Amino acid sequence: MITIGKLNKLKVVKRQGANIYLGNGTSTVLLADKKLPENCQVGDVLEVFVYVDYDLPARLSAGEPDVSRSDTRPANLWQRHLAATVRTPLAEVGNIAWLKVAALNYAGAFLEWGLPKDLLVPFSEQRHEMEVGKYYLVKVFLDDKKRLAATTRIDGFLSDESVYFKAGQKVSLLIADKTELGVKAIVNNTHWGMLYQNELFQPLSKGQKLEGYIKQIRDDHKIDLSLYQPGYGKVESLTDTILARLQENHGVMMLSDKSPPEAIYAAFGVSKKVFKQAIGALYKKKLISIDKNSIRLI
């Protein structure tokens, strides 16, 4: 089965003139790139992004460009067909992404998303009027004609509550808006979660993608997040790193349990709490001494 709006692994099945066709045994699609990657031949398998493309019939299209954000010809003149590209877009169907508006026309706003043809946000899918050059959080979807489109009305696709995630689970995060408590983030493209300000020791920007962890599922089923791996496994890994760093620096490091969180994060990418647990474990093993401004190998 070929899935529209997703990456598919398809075999190069034939060349016909300038056209190259890919297939999976039951269906074929046209390779829009018009050129195979270097050293690729008929019979090889490619990972490609599949979408619905539109072209004018031959009697109208000779020498004319493909449908685009600047095209104003009636939609009923265009013929649909499946197409594929070896390029990877910034988002697939079902993903939420932070994308820039490249242009506006009578149909809506067009977003840059890593493919030659921009992604349309119809006017009906815009919460507010969009502007060229600005970035927006959008969700990619297929419309009723299997065409790729995007919407800024993402709240309807996201839940505030979850019983499916577990504390300690690794998740993908997309940074959204700042609040009085911290920063809201989209979890695995499906849920809202919260990163609390007092646990953030690095700058975060809207649209930024990064990995995080489920800190806890609260009694109201809302999700608290952390950028740091919970549990003692993280501490054990950090103790090895600290020992190695001490050995590299002649047994001295100008950090301690009194150091500011920002300095600790800059050095090791962890919270002050995790750092204190790690040096505490090393101190109990009598491997280091802890001073006001430094730690030392014993």
TrEMBL record:
Gene Ontology molecular function, alphabetical: nucleic acid binding
Protein name in the entry: S1 motif domain-containing protein
TM region(s), chain numbering: none
The S1 motif domain, residue ranges: 92-153, 166-228
Record-stated family: Belongs to the CvfB family.
The organism's taxonomic lineage, starting at the top: Bacteria, Pseudomonadati, Pseudomonadota, Gammaproteobacteria, Methylococcales
